[in-house]
Design brief:
The chain is an alpha+beta fold and about 475 residues long. Helix content is about 20%, strand content about 35%. The strands form eight sheets. Strands 9, 11, 26, 27, 28, 29, 30 and 32 form an eight-stranded mixed sheet that branches. This is Efflux RND transporter periplasmic adaptor subunit.
């Protein structure tokens, strides 16, 4: 009785507390109550199919074993997974708005007049009337504008400073070089303590020279001065003095002869200008033939910087423009000058133009053949309409900017550019003062809206149709 009561209680509880088994007093073992209830329940169900015990994609209509000898697991009706939830339906059209066409969900230049799926199974997005404009603008959602860091700046009038840099060397001013050479056969009697590189002053003695031609002309001139013959003496004397001048006798020597009435044996030659002795060929006792260069003196208070300007920058330079020259030998020091001459010839090998810059050199710091770098200031005081360099999208054949129309709308607009400098570029056509242009993340907007195709469609005055709009890169991007 106790056994029957326990069985009744266990069945009433659904077998939840059923023991694993029970032995009758006669020694006969009763089956486990849990197994009894499970077998009874299993008998009432019929497996739908059997699946692989390891989870492999293998099924069987009847009992079966896998390669390891394990039984396939039965799958019953209640074990079958629930049906997949219905897939999201394609974006339903708003009945109150007219659909113009359907665009590619990934932003590709592809449209369809009817609902369609892309190769990845994504539904094309409907574009309603009013969302698509014919003015070539591109729309971005506020969230996308914030994430991409779009920044705008108004176009303003400003002076464009174009810095032209060119390398060059220091050369002597050709107008400040003097050569001392004899005009008649002469002999160098004595040379002053002057050597190559010595700085001399105008009138400083350089050498004493004896010349028979000079001595003869001096004696003749003194004879005319001492003569008491009247009539034609003054004219004859002027001719004798001119002969001395033709022999390049220094004026102080002629004046001294007129005062002393004595012809000197040797004539003292002096420096004709302040400067540096670049060349000394005179040697004591040497014979100097007419035309032989004995001394070469140059004034270095003003020097030239000969720089080579690239051919592309030739239109930005002009005579009189200020130039800042920096010598590689003096770090941190600059020399101010102006363009004096622009040579009228282009070097066919280097495609450069020689430009001459005059520089003051009072302390003689700039030496001939010294390397320098010139920075030519080509700033024009006349303000022009300019935008930042970063706002220009340059495809090579055309240039464009993105005009910020407000409310997330951006209009690609083709512009004509001028000079560049100081981080700004001149806009000669296509933009008005005060219009805001995108200066940051404009390339991201370009990628988002297929700007190149938009410019093409904007330039071609084609018919307004969905196919044409799909290639113009316009559409709502959120």
């Amino acid at each position: 009785m106790k056994t029957l009561r326990l069985l009744t209680t266990t069945l009433a509880l659904g077998g939840a507390l059923a023991p694993a088994g029970y032995w009758h007093s006669s020694g006969e073992r009763w089956p486990a109550y849990a197994a009894v209830t499970t077998t009874a329940a299993a008998a009432e169900r019929k497996p739908l199919y059997y699946r692989d015990p390891g989870g492999a994609p293998a099924w069987s209509a009847g009992p079966k074993k896998d390669a390891q000898g394990r039984d396939y697991l039965p799958i019953y009706d209640e074990d079958e997974p629930a049906a997949e939830p219905p897939k999201a339906k394609p974006q339903q059209a708003n009945a109150s708005r007219k659909i113009l066409y359907y665009r590619n969900p990934m932003g590709l230049p592809d449209t369809s007049p009817v609902p369609k799926k892309d190769p990845m199974g994504m539904d094309y997005v409907p574009v309603y009337e009013g969302d698509e404009t014919d003015d070539g603008t591109v729309r971005l959602s506020p969230g996308k504008i914030q994430r991409t860091g779009v920044k705008s700046e108004p176009a303003e009038r400003r002076s464009i400073s174009v810095a032209v840099k060119a390398p060059g060397t220091i050369q002597l001013d050709e107008r400040c070089i003097s050569v001392i050479a004899m005009r008649a056969e002469s002999f160098v009697q004595k040379i002053a303590d002057v050597t190559t590189g010595t700085r001399v002053k105008a009138g400083q003695p350089l050498m004493e020279v004896y010349s028979s031609a000079i001595a003869s002309a001096a004696a003749e001139y003194l004879a005319t001065l001492n003569s008491k013959v009247v009539g034609g003496v003054e004219a004859y004397g002027r001719g004798s003095r001119q002969r001395l001048m033709n022999l390049d006798v220094p004026e102080p020597v002629i004046t001294a002869m007129e005062k002393s009435k004595v012809a000197p044996v040797t004539v003292q030659w002096t420096a004709p200008r302040d400067g540096i002795v670049l060349e000394r060929n005179a040697i004591e006792g040497m014979r100097a033939n007419p035309g032989d260069v004995l001394f070469r003196i140059a004034d270095t208070s003003v020097v030239w910087a000969l720089v080579d300007v690239a051919e592309r920058d030739l239109g930005n330079i002009a005579v009189g423009q200020p130039v800042t020259v920096r010598a590689r030998s003096f770090a941190g020091r600059s020399f101010a000058g102006k363009i004096a001459v622009v040579h009228p010839q282009v070097n066919r090998d280097t495609r450069t133009v020689r430009v001459r810059i005059e520089l003051a050199n009072p302390d003689a710091a700039l030496l001939p053949d010294m390397y320098v770098d010139a920075n030519i200031d080509t700033a024009d005081s006349t303000p022009v309409l300019a935008v930042p360099d970063s706002s220009v999208l340059d495809t090579g054949s055309r240039q464009a900017v993105l005009v910020d129309k407000g409310e997330g709308r951006f209009e690609p607009r083709e512009v004509k550019l001028g000079r560049r400098g100081g981080g700004y570029v001149e806009v000669r056509n296509g933009l008005a003062a005060g219009e805001a242009v995108v200066t940051s993340a404009n390339f991201l907007i370009d990628a988002e809206s297929n700007l190149k195709a938009a410019l093409k469609g904007f330039a071609e005055a084609g018919p307004s149709r969905p196919e044409a709009r799909s290639h113009s890169g316009m559409g709502e991007h959120k």
